[in-house]
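tool=predict chain=A
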Amino acid sequence: MSCGAAAGPRVAAFFDIDGTLLEAPSLERRFFGELRRNGWIPVGNYLSWAARAAWLLPRGISAITHGNKKYLRGISVDAAVRHFVAPAFYDQGVARAAWHAEHGHAIMLVSGTIEPLARLTGLALECELEARGVVCRIVVRATLLEAVLGYWTGQICGEAMVGEAKRRAVVKFAREETMELGECYAYGNSEFARLARLLQWPICEWRDRKDSELKQIHDRSEEAQRIETTV
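tool=predict ok
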């Protein structure tokens, strides 16, 4: 079975990654840990990161978390592939993605993590879905990194995929694919809740049996409503 092939108006399901499809720690925190353990981060990068963090501090912790990539300066872009640890998805998250794929909905991951990690996560989720008999190409929108001659500069391209940038990415995708946003679905954390308010989506949430959160921002399916009232 293939996703994105349903008749009638096209529909999409938007998923955040960290804390929604994957448990803590975040993808980027895991990646940083792998780089550090393997000695890929020069001492100077820590100093550059600290200097940049001090400069961003007046803008808040989120600006430091999502906008400061100085620790990656001079590191090969291949490092993302070499040190990517295949994620263990929440079963409930994969089940929801499979439900959408089976109903012909497009699936898009929208995350503030760096794009190479988000893209690899998308590929891993495609494999999980294929194991359930569903073939689906997952679209990814995440924070783009600047690279020169195959090495990261420690700068991001444009802006981090958080807040307003997420809203624009969702709206742009929906318009390009001629989708009605009011008919779409979204799953994510508190930031996705802010996105839902901007798009005038109803907000609710539910938890899986292990009490790990998969927050349901906008989901009209009967199955989701059943889970929401019985879990």
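Residues 64 and 196 are 24 Å apart (CA to CA). The chain has a mean pLDDT of 80.
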